[in-house]
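ok so dumb question maybe but i'm new to this and my supervisor (M.) told me to 'just get the structure for Cupin-like domain-containing protein' and walked off. so i did the thing. is this what she meant?? sequence i used:
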Amino acid sequence: MALRVQLTGLNMFCAQQQLKNLLKKCEAKGVKVNQLKCVREFLKEHDNCKPKKRNYFKAILIISLLIYALIYYYGHLRTEHCSLLMPQAMRYAFRPPENCEFCKQVKHMEHVRDISIEEFTERYAYSGRPVIVEDATTNWTALEKFNYWYFRDIYNRAKNREKVLDCQFLPYNTGFRHLYEALDMPAERVEFYKAKQRGESPEPWYFGWSNCNGETAEEFRQHYGRPYFLPELSESSPIDWFFMGTEGLGAQMHVDNVRLPSWQAQLAGSKRWLLAPPPECYFHCSSFEALVEEGDIIVLDTNRWYHQTFVQPGAISLTIGAEYD
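this is what came out, is it supposed to look like this??
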């Protein structure tokens, strides 16, 4: 008996079904089984063709999802933009509880000068105990160089504005949508204290941003350096943070979602800090205030201490900071 099966235009599963139907018809007409041995062997060999096809489809789907996840991470999340942000109240609710040992003995802010690396490492670097170092910006030219107009000039000359806009921006209560909008205020608003001296009522302003653009970072870092007291093996984050503004505004009470402690240098003006322990430590630790003045560096684990800042009257406040490991 001669059998001819045309597979053109049919997938393997359809061919398998046709062969099975053909086998039944032949057996019904009395064709001997041994004459269909080649057909049975073919069916047995390809009996699992459909599951294989499904497995191939699953593998392709999984690989496609992995590729998409990698593209999304490196092309979107790494630029610090998030499609869905968890509300602050939920972040606080799901925050792991702290061991209150870090704050039990802290009753006030300590001030130090000319502190050695060894002493700072042992007492402050990773203990959660905050401190103000009063002499760490002595040789920094940033105190004379940095101001609103300097930043506006540098960022307006930046070649890659899209990269600047990718950096995180904190408008606080100003309504600014991005850094370039914040650096485009009219002179009357920028010169807040001159306007007050003329008897006017200027609108206060305060904002912060991360400097993740290599071009501007290279320019800025010519005017400040690594604080002398940091542990020898520690490295500062490649991204620095700037905060600038007038009295009447500041950062609300919050705790940061970061991994490392940080330092923040007061380059101009002054800020009053209110520090509070996490809720689970209220009955073990104390809240207290500290005034950070021009030239000071405050070292603080902002992932443990709740903190709020108040720009003090008299001058525009400007700070720069970074995390360290």
